[in-house]
Amino acid sequence: MDITFESKRAKRNMLIILLAIAASVLLNIAVHAQTPGEWRTMKGDVNLFIANDLGRNGYYEQKPVAELMGEMAGSIGPEAVVAAGDIHHFEGVASTQDPLWMTNYELIYSHPELMISWLPVLGNHEYRGNTQAVLDYRNVSRRWTMGGRYYTKVYEDNGVSVRLVLIDTTPLINRYHHSATYPDVDAQDVDAQLAWIDKTLGEAKEDWVIVVGHHPMYAQTKKDIIEQTDMQAQLLPILQRHRQKVAMYVCGHIHNFQHIRRGADGIDYVVNSSASLARKVSPVEGTLFCSLSEGFSVVSATKQKLCLYMIDKAGNVIHKVERLK
User: Do residues 170 and 182 lie in contact, with contact meaning Cβ atoms separated by under 8 Å?
Assistant: First the structure.
């Protein structure tokens, strides 16, 4: 036997094995999400998650995205999860004891790192049911810290402050009124809410102000465009009046990611994707980015910078909205 030949063949085989292992590692790197170490680079002084259009009883991408939110929360440490409407598809909830609270929320967002404050707003699907039950759930779950149909919350850490102005957009849209499908809409005082938004923004003194509602101001959508024209008629003048303070208007409803700048008001209009089931999207006037991926967003703030990171269902940052002082 030629020992030299056998030795060369053994070395060649070992090289092939090592190359195969290396290829496997590279493939893993290519197809897997960013690492917890990379996630930690997003962390600011104040950190928040934003998720919406959730309620699919764990189906589609809801459960995987919920698990991803928990994993990323372990790296970033958000103060709260902002739930920008439609926590319950399709007919809202009937009461605080409705089983949908378990199948849409409690059993899905069960990761230990998500046992933090949740700041919900009402979406149009909540208005198909009992909206008072959505508010009253704060008496059932201590993490459901909903301050009202519209309310404000300030987070401050290390000298950095962020004010969230959380609003109820369904009553601002005319087509939801006088409809048996949305029984609680007509009881809402639209003028009172608009006056409150104007006053709250006028008095805001925080480093950063983010307004959160369910319906978009601008977006590409197959939904009725009159929703946006109603929002532009009712809410836009108030945001523009306080454009020196309002950094972003963030919403859901359209089930995809969109980042739009329109006009000269300097406000970033952000559509946050569904955390369960997304829809196709294409650019419109003012679109800086759009994606049909399911996911959620991470907000981080320092004294000089406010960032909103759009996260796809694999845990990758697919777009960053950045504001500088």
Answer: yes
Query: Distances in Å between the alpha carbon of 324 and those of 28, 115, 286, 301, 306?
Result: 35, 31, 20, 10, 7
Cis peptide before 5 (omega within 30 of 0): no
Q: How far apart are CA 105 and CA 89, in angstroms?
A: 11
DSSP-derived 3-state class of residue 150? coil
Q: Which candidate, 36, 118, 108, places its Cα nearest to that of 78?
A: 118
- What distance in Å separates the CA atoms of residue 317 and residue 300, rounded to the nearest whole number? 13
Q: Rounded to 10 degrees, what is the CA torsion of 51, 53, 59, 65?
A: -20
Beta strands in the chain (DSSP E): 46-51, 80-83, 117-120, 151-157, 160-166, 208-212, 246-251, 257-260, 268-271, 287-291, 295-301, 305-312, 317-324
Rounded to an integer, what distance in angstroms lies between the CA atom of residue 216 and that of residue 219?
6
The 10s digit of each residue's pLDDT in 211-252 is 999 999 999 998 889 999 999 999 999 999 999 999 999 999
Percent of the chain clearing pLDDT 90 (strictly above): 88
Residue 22 has a pLDDT of: 37
323 forms beta bridges with 306
Strand partners, 301: 46, 306
Place of tokens 């290390």: 158
Q: What is the DSSP letter of 132?
A: H
CA distance 269 to 243: 12
Neighbouring residues of 4: CB distance < 8 A, sequence distance ≥ 6: none
